[in-house]
Design brief:
The protein is an all-alpha fold and 384 residues long. It is built from 19 helices and no strands. Helix 1 runs antiparallel to helix 3 and helix 4 runs parallel beside helix 17. The longest helix has 33 residues.
């Protein structure tokens, strides 16, 4: 199957959104300078609301969806050559795990390790039927662990939330970010990985990512990214359904505390509704992107994200390095001097640097530098 440019553009858009969110969060420091000026306070409030609204839980979800799609492309291309890619993909996930550990040295909220672990599910399910994949994806998307916790709470009467394990390790990482050097960051990888692990499992991200992998693989199987009349109709329907579902789900989330007293149930419902509403908005956002890309004169602007998306691993890890250098103490450590607005502007500056690099690099190379290393390592030992 030939390269699908709209998928590259979408992936670039997702990496851009992840960068803006990380910059807004100051790469997990949340150490914004508070201003007294009314105008600056207003701008901070606008950007501090709008950037998370558009990208929080959605940008990385698009990234996850496209991960499942990319697996299908790679697996399908090898099947057409008479090869079984699944063994190589397992090795590829081992390499991705190592990339994630390296990324964790510079940024405490890495997602590559999670992708490398959950990605093994793609190997297990790769030869199942479309119907089975869809059913499995829906079951995972419904967040069974969260519903099971709710049922258990109803049966036992448990209503008090225990200590959140991820916070223990998050608080251990903060002094390293604010006062440590690069060697301290290396030593702190263990705590940052445990922080991420407990956050993934406690906040439902494992099931959500697994479901998105399944849906991404299905999109590849059904060729839904190809510009056909039938697919355009599909994405138009997805757009309408997404916005119709998002509005009541978002509204229900905002008023849930008024109706649910049990803390355990309230917390789990917040996770569930957050997942559902984010996916609904994701459907709207992706559909809009695809329809504009294919059917609007503005699509030429969205296509500019293609080079950025083709180098997603390079861009993801390098934004951690640049962002860590700007915000953390091992670099210039200026987080305390940046407002919400200036933190986001830093993200836009990083994007400008990365985009320029990607644009000119791909003029003379087929793929990004880290993508090249990852590909070479994936196929190490294979006879030509």
């Amino acid at each position: 199957m030939k390269r699908v440019n709209v998928a590259d553009a979408l992936r670039g858009f997702a990496i851009f959104g992840i960068l803006l969110m990380h910059s807004y969060e100051q790469f997990n420091l949340f150490n914004h300078l508070v201003v007294d000026n009314k105008l600056l306070m207003f701008i901070d409030a606008v950007l501090g609301t709008s950037v998370p609204f558009v990208f929080a839980g959605k940008a990385y979800a698009i990234f996850a969806l496209l991960f499942g799609f990319s697996f299908f492309i790679q697996d399908n291309n090898q099947l057409e050559k008479g090869n079984d890619f699944r063994g190589r993909f397992v090795w590829r996930m081992v390499l991705l795990f190592l990339w994630g550990v390296i990324n964790s040295i510079f940024y405490t909220g890495d997602v590559l390790v999670l992708f490398s672990i959950v990605g093994l599910l793609l190997v297990i399910t790769a030869r199942l039927s479309d119907k089975t994949i869809l059913i499995l994806g829906i079951i995972l998307f419904l967040m069974p662990l969260q519903w099971g916790t709710i049922v258990s709470s109803l049966i036992t009467g448990e209503s008090t939330i225990g200590p959140k394990l991820f916070l223990e390790y998050y608080y251990k990482t903060i002094p390293v970010l604010t006062d440590g050097n690069l060697l301290d960051m290396v030593k702190g990888v263990y705590n940052s990985q445990l922080y991420s692990f407990y956050w993934w499992t406690g906040e439902g991200r494992v099931f959500q990512v697994a479901a998105l992998f399944m849906f991404g693989m299905l999109i590849g199987r059904r060729k839904l990214f190809i510009n056909t009349k039938e697919n355009i109709i599909f994405w138009r329907k997805a757009l309408v359904i997404g916005i119709i579902c998002f509005l009541p789900l978002a509204g229900l989330t905002s008023i849930m505390n008024e109706f649910v007293e049990n803390e355990v149930i309230r917390h789990q419902l917040k996770i569930i509704l957050g997942c559902y509403s984010s996916f609904a908005f994701l459907a709207f956002l992706m559909s809009t992107f695809i329809l504009v890309y294919y059917k609007s004169s503005l699509g030429k602007y969205l296509s500019k994200f293609e080079s950025y998306g083709r180098m997603s691993l390079t861009m993801y890890i390098s934004q951690s390095i640049i962002g860590g250098f700007i915000f953390y103490n091992w670099g210039i450590g200026i987080s305390a001097y940046l407002t919400v607005t200036t933190s986001i502007l830093v993200g836009l500056g990083i994007f400008a640097i990365q985009y320029t690099f990607a644009y000119y690099w791909l003029k003379s190379h087929k793929q990004g530098p880290l993508e090249y290393v990852w590909k070479k390592a994936t196929w190490i030992g294979k006879k030509k």
